[in-house]
Each structure stands twice: as C-alpha cells, then as structure tokens.
# Entry
Amino acid sequence: MPVNLSAPDPSRLFPVPGVRIGVAEAGVRKVGRKDLTVFLLDEGASVGGVFTRNRFCAAPVQICRDRLQAGEPIRAMVINTGNANAGTGEDGLARARQVSDALADLLKLQPGQVLPFSTGVIMEPLPVDRIVAGLPAAVADAQPNHWARAAEGIMTTDTVPKAFSAKARVGGVEVTITGISKGAGMIRPNMATMLGFLATDACVAPALMKPLAQALADASFNRVTIDGDTSTNDSFVVVATNKAANKPVSSLDSDDGRALLSAMQDVARQLAQAIVRDGEGATKFIAIQVDGGKTADECRQVAYAIAHSPLVKTAFFASDPNLGRILAAVGYAGIDDLDQAKIDLHLDDVCVAVNGGRNPAYREEDGQRVMKQAEITVRVNLGRGKASETVWTCDLSHDYVSINADYRS
Amino acid sequence: MPVNLSAPDPSRLFPVPGVRIGVAEAGVRKVGRKDLTVFLLDEGASVGGVFTRNRFCAAPVQICRDRLQAGEPIRAMVINTGNANAGTGEDGLARARQVSDALADLLKLQPGQVLPFSTGVIMEPLPVDRIVAGLPAAVADAQPNHWARAAEGIMTTDTVPKAFSAKARVGGVEVTITGISKGAGMIRPNMATMLGFLATDACVAPALMKPLAQALADASFNRVTIDGDTSTNDSFVVVATNKAANKPVSSLDSDDGRALLSAMQDVARQLAQAIVRDGEGATKFIAIQVDGGKTADECRQVAYAIAHSPLVKTAFFASDPNLGRILAAVGYAGIDDLDQAKIDLHLDDVCVAVNGGRNPAYREEDGQRVMKQAEITVRVNLGRGKASETVWTCDLSHDYVSINADYRS
# Structure
C-alpha cells in the first residue's frame, strides 16, 4: 500500500498544448498490460534530459544522450516497460534503434528525432517485433489528455500511477506543467529516476533545457532513495513546447526563470516523492534532514547513509524507536573528522539525543509515538557548519523482500 | 539457519596456555543468559587490537584504543552483551570505566590493564550494577578450556557460537591458535568485526601486535559484510601469551612471521566467514570475487557494491538468476571510467555475460542451477588490470526483516 498516495484524477491533469500521448498493449513481457507509450511533440518543442550515472547504462540511455547532444529537434519519444534493454551490449543498441526508427518511419521523422526509453528486467533481449507491431496502435491512441493513461503505461512494480500537474504565471502569462514518473525499486537516482517526463507549454530558450532538467532533477529525483540501487535506465526528460505566449525564458536566474523553475520543481518533487511513497513494500514515508554540516555534500552523504541502512529501515517498518541505529549510520557515513559529542538527533518534535548521547529528557514513549506515524522527519544536526540537505526515503518491509524475490516469476 | 555452520565441538578447541576464560549470567538485558565474559591473561602477554572506524564509536572502544596506545600490559578483558554502551556520551565512558575498574580491583590490577567490550542495543545506559555484581562469578568460572563457553557468552542475535582453533609450527615449535567471534547484523566491519578475539601462545614481539592484528583483520573481518551497517562497537583483539618456546617473531616478513600469520589468518578467516554464514536471516553464503581491476581498492569497491545491493541479495534469496542486477551494481559502484563493453560475469562455472552483454551460450537453467546452491561464487572481470579481491556476504531474506524489526522486543 503506498503511503498517502492515490492514483491521479485524470480531470486534474492539465493537457500541455503541443503534447499528445498514446498507449498500447504490445505484450512485451506479459499480455494484457499497457506496456507501450508514445509521446508526440509538435514542431518547435525544446527537450532536455538527464540520465543515470550508472556505468552499465542501458542501450536507450546511450542513444538518448547522443541524440540530445546532436541537437536535432526531438519530435517523439517511445517507452516500453517489461524489458530494460540494459546489459545487452551492441545487440541492445541495435534493437533500441530498430524500435525508434520504426516510430520515425510511422511519423515521417528523421531517426535522430525520436528518443527511446525502456524499463523492466535487465539483460534480456528486447522483443523488437512485438514492440514495433504495437506502435501503430499507440500512435492512433494519441491525445493531449492522455497523461493519466501514460502514467499507467510506464508502470512496472509501481502499484499506483504517478502524475501531477500545475499552472503557474511566467512573465504575466499562465503556463501549464504536467508530468509523470515511474519506479518503485532499484531507486537511488543518480541524475534522475527510473523514468520521469515533465512538460510545459512555456517558451524556454533551447539552450536552457539541459540546465533546467539538471536543476529540476537535483531538487527532486536526486533527493530520493528506496534501496540504494542506482538503475541502469534512469532518465528524466523535460519538454517545453513553446506554445504559451510568454517571452522565452533565457535564464534560470531571471524573475521569469525563477517563477518557472519553482513551479516545475513543485511538480518534479511531487513526482519524485510519489516514487518513494510507492516504494516497494513501503509502509512509511521518511524525510531525512541533515543540518549543521560544513557542506551540502556531506549533509547528503549522512542523509543517504541513514536512508540506506537496512537496520534503520527495518526499525521504521517495526515502528521501533531503536534510534541508536541512526547514530551508528551517522558515524559510518564517511566524515572523517566528525565529532560525535556535537551531534543532536530529533524525530519530528522529539529530541532524542544531544551532544552525541541520549537526551536525559527523552522518553521511549515519545519516540514510539512518532515512529508509529506514516510520515516521519528525522533531523540530525552535525554541529559543524551551516549547510542543510533533505532526502526522502521509505522503510524496508517483508513486502520489499517478497516483491524482489518474486519480481520475474 | 546458518549456512554450513554448526556449533564448535569444545574438545576440538585447543586451550591457549596463558589464557583463562570465565562466563556468568549477569542479567544485563534478559535473565538466564550467559552475557558476561572475562578473559584473564597471564603476566607477559602481548595484546594488539583494531577497532571500528565508525565515528560514533562506543565508549568501551574509545577506552580500549587509549589503553592499548598507553601500553600498560593488558591482563584482563571484560565483555558484556545486551547493551552496546554506544551513543551514550560522557556518561557511557564513566560507566565503561566503572565496570573495568571493578574487574581490576577484583584481580588486583591497575585500571589501565583491563580492556572493556560491549555489544547489544545502542543508546541505552549500561547497567553497571548488574555487570559488576556478576564479575566475581565470571572470575571464579575462569578455565583454560572455556573457549566454547566464551563463544556462547558473547552472542547476541547469533544463532550459533563461533570458535575455531589450529596448531601451527613457528620456528620449529608447535604453537596453538584459538579464537572466537560474534555478530550477525550491523556487520560491515571497517577495521574488524563486532567482536573477535584470537589468542596464540606463540612468542611475538610486542611491537608487532598492532600490525599483526591489522594484517589479520584485513584478510578476514575486513572482507565480510551482511548489511553494510558498520557497527559502533567493532573490535578485534589479538593476544600472544608468549608461552611457547619459539624464538620471538619480530617481523611478519620473516619465515616465522609468515608461518604464524598464515596460520592465524586461516583461523581469522573462518571466524569472519562464520559471521556471514550466521548472518541475520542468511540462507546462502556468497563469495564475490572481482578480477581484472586496476587496483585492489576498486575491486573491493565493486565487490561491496554487489554485496550490499538489496536487489542482488533478494535475488539470491529467491534463487532467481536475475543477474542483470549484478551488472547494475557493477555499474554504479563508482568507477568513473568503467567500460561496460569489457565486463564479464560468471556464476561459479557458468559464464553469464561477456563484453557487457548476455553470453549467447548462457542458458537460464544453468544460472538457476547455481543459484539454488547454498554456496555460490560470483566472479566479475572488469577487464582493466590485474588486481583481484574477494569479499564474502549472504542473501537478504524475510528473516532479516523479521529479526531486525523485532530485535528489541
């Protein structure tokens, strides 16, 4: 059961002018599942993306990187679930190209104008024939109001589709922002999540798309973790269709840039947090805030050490305030000159430890009360400086083991 | 159920002349448990130790480090389970001193001649009164042949006591080596394991004890991981009672030094591997061998990334050859210039991937056959150089979650 997350109401997802989406059942891995999604972009759209830092990155990730770098105008994206096309070598690259070339043919585009994405099992050959056979149906299905369908179409072990939408004012003009994401396991984005797509009709200078995607990922997908496993397929793509009447945003440091970034960040953060709320087996949503660091990097390092500790995660699952496990994770996070005598720990409003030892006023029943909540904030103060960072994670439950022991069966 | 590990046969554990061991029930956390162990060392023993790198190291760890540094001859060690005395601040240091001072009084030693050790729950005050009250019984129990009792006396979530013993020839003289260890969770030693004690009657120059302890830890405890959680209390102590007739070993690079090191390493490795075999919830024992690295460090880095991946560990639990997860972990291990096209993967004798892609000859049933075994070797070749390293780990099962969700209850 996801933590405080329900399926999106399709009527609350605003279409983004210039984007049409179609979904089909191609039988990639299982029959009767929406497993093939296409995004069709009107001429004039700008696209930016950030991708996994995993050195074993999937074939489609390599192709997306090359095509965005080459700068041909992107007009379509094709996403399959059920097969990640990762760990597939040269043959995998050829298969990813066959799929995107087939879509380019259908749409009368150049091959370099299509971005392919895959998610699913690693190290199995992509079933090109079935995917190509499904493309006409996906294209025929394309509509501007199909965001909820797309959110469903890219799910793998997700239990709930993830889509969010917002309106914002940029340069005095109302613009629309809508996005979808997927992912529930192998989630420790190191650039972006498994798959995230965010579109706006705002006018944005093409050169700004890559830094915009990076800034959005840094504030959202690069702040979440479920199991510490950085995927081979993480991809986060941002589209500006340039259909709105605003003066093109050319800097993130301008008033317009800040307004757009802030509104898009809200949606990106909701998409990223939705992945954690629907984390495999998750029963709790946990924000880990590390204050008082010398640098933002060391704050994140400590926050991730806590977020990845199986012992901390199982204690949250059990609602057991065995909070010394958090201190242990702080201690092994890798800050060589950390002084344990300066460290404080809070659980929501409850002060658990001060100066590296148990707070004399701390009562187990107070810790217990917070641990029972579905949403919890862990606050660690390192007592070394002024930097602060927050990451979001979930607990580790029996269902995580069940889901991942049974995933392929 | 531990993986191919049974309780030691007390008759096969050789006493080490100069070491007596006593165990008592002090009721530290639960009644009716052997939870207090003392080691009494004859005059003339040399002692070396290595300790956790966790910056939140426990109070007894801080005291042990100081006392070994100060160099007063160590004559006794006291170990309690049920309480780690970590995350306890200044008060914890005072309590650890009270316990070891009480033992020094009983034995008419100086305070600096006693080393204290604790293992158990973090961030709870050490019950000094109950431990001190138990000391006379532990001292009265002391016998040279109590190694099996001691192995039982230091257990926490261990299901099986861990003790190994060997005879070796050093400088033409037969010497004895016997050791015990404990630990099943919060195991990713970063110097040593939760607790390991290894003694020999060989004569060893006192100045060699610290490098000897380090060399032994590096070849054994620093090569195992269960859950990636580096403990606050990891301590590995090596004792040479200097009772044997060999000429004192003064260098690890001499013939005698190599003979002693090799024999002690065998025992230390058995003790370290026993911890993995009895890892919380473990059903499989997995050796991860990484070859073809540029440096030993990067081989270890990749091996630990695989060993810590929850997805890899749950696949082993399920006997599911979902082996792309191993490639993904190789990819995110942090080697920036890794070339995926050079990577090979074997599971025992089965070649799974070559040149970064699935081996065309690989058949799922071959992977399945190996995955069903209780002991498995994963071999990754990075294709970058000549370095090679091996670490040992276990799978991640439902029981790991159960044990750690219920540990304190």
